[in-house]
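Q: Hi! First time doing this. I have a protein sequence and I read that you can turn it into a structure. Is that right? Here it is:
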Amino acid sequence: MSIDNIIAQAVCEAVKSLYGVNFEPESITLQSTRKEFEGNLTVVVFPFLKASHKPAETTANEIGEYLKDNCEAVKSYNAIKGFLNIVVEPAFWCNMLKHIAADPDYGFKAATDDSELVMIEYSSPNTNKPLHLGHVRNNLLGYSLSLIMKANGYKVVKTNIVNDRGIHICKSMLAWEKWGNGITPEKAGKKGDHLIGDFYVMFDKHYKDEVKQLMAEGMSEDEAKEKSPLMVEARKMLQRWEAGDEEVRSVWRMMNQWVYDGFNETYRRMGVDFDKIYYESETYLEGKKKVLEGLEKGIMYRKEDGSVWADLTADGLDHKLLLRSDGTSVYMTQDIGTAKLRYQDYPIDKMIYVVGNEQNYHFQVLSLLLDKLGFKWGKDLVHFSYGMVELPEGKMKSREGTVVDADDLMDEMIRTARETSAELGKLDGCSAEEADEIARIIGLGALKYFLLKVDPRKNMMFNPKESIDFNGNTGPFIQYTYARIRSLLRKAAEAGIDYNSNYDIEPSEKEVAIIQKIADFAQVVSEAGKTYSPALVANYVYDLAKEYNQFYHDYSILREEDAATRNFRLKLSEVTGNIIRRATGLLGMEVPERM
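A: Yes, that's right. Below is the predicted 3D structure, encoded as structure tokens:
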């Protein structure tokens, strides 16, 4: 049992004994004592004032006195108004360290047959361009969230919906047919997603030139955009695709496969994966069927032009288009179809969509529609709404080719990590292969940590050079702390030191602070799952690494003459390293054994 549970239980017993009122341990509010006060844990006593009928400070003192007399874990206490600061018996912390060291799954809950099944959708790329920086944040958030939910005892299915049809795909296809001269990824020496992205940019360039020319001939901008020969041709291609034209479909299948091969390579490098991938080309017809079912049941209505709509004004929203007058579907229709197929495939208890905050309205509407159409989890779907990533240079635009490509970004991060590590002497004595692997781990770890440490709901500025700093709130700082611990333990092994026994000591204040921070891991994992926030884990592991580094600089470890103290500090180091590895693992980060 953790110290938090022990104290919470003891407080319940105190309140029952002193005031005759029952409280559950889960209702007790505990927090780490602020540094300016003496203590390890602080109990908030305001909830007990109705039971005590006494001032807050008097109540705190009475509960504190009871704990000191009746709870072995409590050494002393002090009361500051409505806050009871508890000093835990130092010997208790040594037992806490042993408890955590003996539990390889400390902080994690295993799924059972009765566990809820959570499906998490992330990535959601279009097959007309490569993945970019925005996709990187999306993938890392979704993958990390899946690991956090699994650590909280849920069954998890990681899923992706690929937007592989629509006008944007036809633009790339048309540009390839017009100006590609039969080029393939092999002939171009390029990844397929990059090659198709080039044609998407090419289409936009020619389209803008056409619009400019038509406007010069006297058309308004809207009219020119509507009558651009290229855009007209792209729309016709989409109509042919929807009609099943085999000539269009064969080009579509070939070019999409090029893109999928490119995506898979990027996902592998990024370290993310999926249990099930859905494709819009396979789900949009299911969505149309479901919408037409809703039309028959009176949930939707048809306008005179044949288009189908949902009236959501009673829910505080507006009227939402679901099928155009020509019968073609919109994104909402596809999402309804995807939901239907997913619900057929899996007994979903909770559905989490990892999608940027510009789609907040879309998911409000989707939630209402799924609920009206009878999906039991529709009303409770979670839109994991995250902020946009910007660069110091400004926003990115796919059509103009100004996006930061995911592959180029990863290459740049690894290159920068290699250069920075070499300058600091971190790669001294490494073979070329070892140096490459360390640079990969550091570069990608820096990228992941920098994107995940920020509250996901906030927009953020990504600065590659700042993320590689070995001294700030960065991935490399945490990774280096882990590598330092592993080096320390290797030296202990080489010296023949067995530190797994004979380490019963009374820890110092600094050592207690580290054990308390380690013990907090279970609560952090739980809270990150409740609030869907990888940032909580990221900032926790940084605080733990920072706390340990201060200890490492201030205390002798291998050279400590007292064997029990030396063994205790080595054990403390080992457990700290294990928690760092497991916490960074929840972020999808690797940690190097040497650095």
